[in-house]
Every structure is written in C-alpha cells, then in structure tokens.
C-alpha cells in the first residue's frame, strides 16, 4: 500500500516541467554571462537549417531567449501550465507533446520565413508553450472529466490573448505560435481519443459517454 502511494505521489510531481524551466534558465544565464554566443549556433534560420543543414537548431532554438522579459514570460507560463497538465496526461506524453509542438511551430516558422524572404533567425520556447495551450483546449473539449474546473471559453480567451499580444508586438515569431497551437491541438485530440476509447474496453467507453451526456 505504501509503495502504491509513493508511486502515485511520484507520478504527480511535474518533474518534466520543472526540468524544462531549469534548463531554459541555465542556458539563458550561460548565454548572458559567458563569452559563449549560443544564438549563432542555435537560432532558427533559413540559412542555418535549409542551407547549411543544421537541423539541431530545431531543438536548440527552443532553449534560447532574447532578453529577461522574453524568458520570464515564457517560463512563468510553462511552469503553471506544465504543472497543471503534466499530472493529468503523464510525464512522457507531456514531454512528447511539448517537443513535437515546438518542432511543428518551428516548421511553420521556417516556411513563412522562406516564402517571405526573412533572413532573421528566431529563438524561444513559445511554439512549444502555445502547443501546451492547444493541448489544454483539446482536453477541455474532448475529455472534460480530466479538467472539470477549466472551461473551453476560458482557454480560448487565453489563447486569443496570447496570439493578439504577439501580433501587436515587434520581432515576434507569430508563425511559430500558430504552428505550436495547431500541433498541440491535434496531438491533444488524439491523446484524448486514446484515453476515452482504449481504457477499459466497450463498457468503459459507454460509461464515459454517459458521463459526458450528464455534464
């Protein structure tokens, strides 16, 4: 019994979210206070990825931030969003959706840069973080029992405010935001479908449907 309780407590610790925040802060401090120029090696740019074939920039760029305001805003959202969502879907699913959303946001960002002839690179975890917001929207739309206190309207307004703030600001990679949301929404919908329709067989599926009808 004690072992089961310890395992349950371990599962509820959002160590992936905490680790991501810690790594981002450490990388930011290294870039700020050491002679290392991590931007040159990690920013997402058409030349770096498509011309020189440095595909590792898809990963590196997610851990780079341009200024204290940039990293502070991203890490606050990542911490509170992550600690709320990670315990609901599990550590592996959370980490996978985070990075896949970041990759999807970077792909759309590169595509927009390419067709618009933008040579400036971009950095930040915003695409992955917006992916978590898309994931949360999927959860409240398709698996409401997991998030009974969060409404679709509240999440939609949060996403809309984030997108609006990005579009009103200068030097913001809005394509990465839209790409992250889209990927997070799709991945979240697939995850919710898997949770609803593979857990406990036909009887469990029927009961979930009945509970949703009662809501």
Q: How does this structure look, described?
A:
This protein has one domain (2-197): Rhomboid-like (Rhomboid-like fold). By secondary structure, the chain is mainly α. It is built from 11 helices and no strands. The protein has helices at residues 2-12, 15-33, 38-42, 46-51, 57-60, 68-89, 91-116, 126-142, 152-168, 174-197, 201-214. Residues 201-215 have low confidence and may be disordered. It is globular and about 50 Å long.
Features:
215 residues, mainly alpha, Rhomboid-like fold, 11 helices
Outline of this structure?
The chain has 215 residues and is mostly helical. It contains eleven helices and no strands.
User: What is the CATH class designation?
Assistant: Mainly Alpha
CATH homologous superfamily - what is it? Rhomboid-like
Q: Summarize the biggest pleated sheet.
A: none
Number of helical elements: 11
Which stretches are poorly predicted, pLDDT < 50 over at least 5 residues? 201-215
Report the β-strand fraction as a percent range: under 5%
Number of strands: 0
Q: Cα-atom Rg, whole angstroms? A: 19 Å
Structure classification: mainly alpha
> What gross morphology would you assign?
globular
SSE layout:
Elements: H1 2-12, H2 15-33, H3 38-42, H4 46-51, H5 57-60, H6 68-89, H7 91-116, H8 126-142, H9 152-168, H10 174-197, H11 201-214
């Amino acid at each position: 019994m004690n072992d089961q309780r310890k395992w349950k407590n371990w599962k509820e610790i959002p160590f992936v979210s905490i680790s991501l925040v810690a790594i981002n802060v450490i990388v930011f401090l290294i870039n700020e206070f050491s002679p290392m120029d991590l931007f040159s090696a990690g920013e997402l740019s058409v030349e770096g990825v498509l011309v020189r074939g440095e595909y590792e920039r898809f990963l590196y760029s997610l851990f780079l931030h341009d200024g204290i305001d940039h990293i502070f805003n991203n890490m606050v959202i990542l911490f509170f969003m992550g600690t709320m969502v990670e315990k609901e879907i599990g550590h592996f699913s959370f980490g996978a959706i985070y990075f896949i959303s970041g990759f999807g946001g970077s792909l759309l960002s590169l595509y927009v840069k390419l067709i618009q002839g933008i040579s400036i690179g971009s950095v930040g975890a915003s695409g992955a973080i917006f992916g978590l917001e898309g994931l949360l929207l999927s959860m409240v739309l398709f698996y409401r029992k997991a998030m009974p206190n969060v409404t679709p309207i509240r999440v939609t307004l949060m996403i809309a405010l984030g997108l609006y703030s990005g579009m009103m600001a200068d030097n913001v990679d809005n394509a990465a935001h839209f790409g992250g949301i889209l990927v997070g929404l799709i991945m979240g919908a697939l995850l919710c479908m898997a949770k609803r329709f593979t857990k406990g067989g036909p009887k469990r599926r029927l009961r979930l449907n009945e509970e949703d009808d009662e809501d």
